[in-house]
Design brief:
The protein is an all-alpha fold. It has 10 helices and no strands. The termini are far apart.
């Protein structure tokens, strides 16, 4: 549930991209002609979307722990760190999808939701045993699947005494975020508008 909650931030990332691009929204057109640096505006928007998404996820974690009494142990800080990294990745994923040209915002939101659902399915969140099937026939999927990384990190806190798997999963989330951020930056930097 936490992984799916984190990955839903991709729709917020699509909205951020839509509000940033001048050819997709009036707000984006105003931002292009503003005297403020576009990247400064972009980073503040992304930070706001990640913060709001993280607050939603934090409320979900606290609700699961203290109202539903789900046994998470006493690793609240580490759970929230993985939740933050998952939210960061999902917003950057949605932003990357939102920057892809030639599609409507609705289609881009649909693509982000399909990605979230597929990622959740492959990590075993929708069908019992799917994780083992993917692990047997295509184990590399778990290395690049955000939902699997979040689930494995949370599961490792409950099962193992060491934090080796947790750190590997956190590093995987950071690496995917950096890749998506670099790709999005490359797309944003090369944008030029002849007339608005």
């Amino acid at each position: 549930l936490i992984a799916m909650n984190c990955l839903m931030g991709a729709t917020a990332g699509v909205a951020c991209a839509s509000n940033f691009k001048a050819d997709l929204s009036a707000l984006g057109a105003r931002r292009v002609i503003a005297s403020t640096n576009r990247l400064r505006i972009l980073f503040s928007d992304l930070a706001a979307y990640v913060t709001v998404q993280f607050v939603y996820t934090t409320f979900s974690v606290l609700y699961l722990m203290y109202v539903l009494k789900a046994p998470f142990g006493n690793h609240l800080g580490m759970i929230l760190l993985i939740a933050f990294l998952g939210n960061l990745l999902s917003v950057f994923l949605g932003f990357f999808i939102g920057l892809l040209g030639g599609m409507s915002e609705t289609l881009k939101e649909g693509i982000s939701v399909v990605f979230m659902l597929t990622s959740s399915f492959l990590s075993g969140l929708m069908l019992d045993g799917m994780y083992r099937i993917v692990d047997t026939y295509a184990p590399v999927v778990h290395l690049v699947n955000p939902a699997s990384l979040i689930v494995n990190a949370l599961r490792s806190l409950d099962i193992y005494d060491t934090y080796e798997i947790y750190v590997q999963c956190a590093a995987g989330l950071v690496a995917l975020t950096v890749l998506l951020g670099a790709g999005a930056y490359a797309m944003v930097r090369r944008e030029r508008y002849a007339s608005i």
